Amino acid sequence: MPKPKKHILVCVQGRPAGHPRGSCQEKGCGEVYNTFLDEFQKRNLWADFLLTNTGCIGPCSLGANVLVYPEGVMYSKVTAADVATIIDEHLLFDQPVERLKAPAEVW
Question: Does 47 have pLDDT greater than 80?
Fold first, then answer.
């Protein structure tokens, strides 16, 4: 496999109900990850980009969280409806989606 242009990490961490940190799972990360999978398949992005589901990557209260490397951009409060925008703007045109970026005090 050639080195990907970007690596997208989607948190799919789950914790028991009532856990003080919460989790991305209770904020719809499964749907976000599955939407990335669907879009990667439809757009044939596998040759240029790598998609990985992960455990906790940080601010659980702001989930669902997505990280994009090599830039190190963290997106928070991502929904399935945001996935196409992340792909269209950040992955394909190197323009991070400002409205989804995690607050500076978090990342």
Answer: yes
Q: Count other Cβ atoms within 10 Å, centred on residue 30.
A: 16
- The yes-or-no verdict on residue 84 having pLDDT over 90 is yes
Distance from C-alpha of 7 to C-alpha of 43, rounded to nearest angstrom: 16
**CB 5, CB 49: distance < 8 Å:** yes
Residues 6+ apart with CB under 8 A from 2: 47
For residue 26, give both structure tokens. 């209770």
**Burial environment of residue 20 by CB neighbours within 10 A (0 to 12, 13 to 18, 19 or more):** exposed
Contact yes or no for 33/53 (Cβ under 8 A): yes
Judge whether residue 1 has pLDDT over 80.
no
pTM, two decimal places = 0.94
